[in-house]
Write a structure and sequence with these properties.
Number of helices: 4
Strand content: under 5%
Oligomer: single chain
Shape: elongated
């Protein structure tokens, strides 16, 4: 038996069972779920660092969308927050590196 104890996509248990394997799952809530989301975000970010694949960015965004859902924040509300920050402070598209600031 292999132990995982990690947040997985909703269809993963059924996919594993289709392979003739038995899965043991539980559903996290509240602070416990927040912990699993934090761990999953780190996992997906590390996978992106390792191989640089766009697919890993899609996984990262999927975790963020699920986290927003559980925080009660709509995608529209989230996008409004992102756009407001973009208007006020800009984006990261220009690749500006702040090296130092003198008084």
């Amino acid at each position: 038996m292999k132990i995982y104890d990690k947040l997985v996509r909703d269809k993963i248990p059924a996919i594993i069972e289709e392979q003739g394997k038995t899965v043991h799952i539980t559903k996290a809530e509240g602070i416990s779920l927040t912990h699993y989301f934090d761990t999953k975000l780190k996992e997906e970010l590390n996978e992106y660092y390792e191989n640089g694949e766009v697919e890993e960015l899609a996984d990262l965004v999927e975790v963020i969308y699920a986290l927003l859902f559980h925080k009660g924040v709509s995608l529209e509300e989230f996008e409004n927050i992102r756009e407001q920050k973009n208007q006020e402070r800009g984006s990261f598209k220009e690749g500006i590196i702040l090296k130092s600031v003198e008084n």
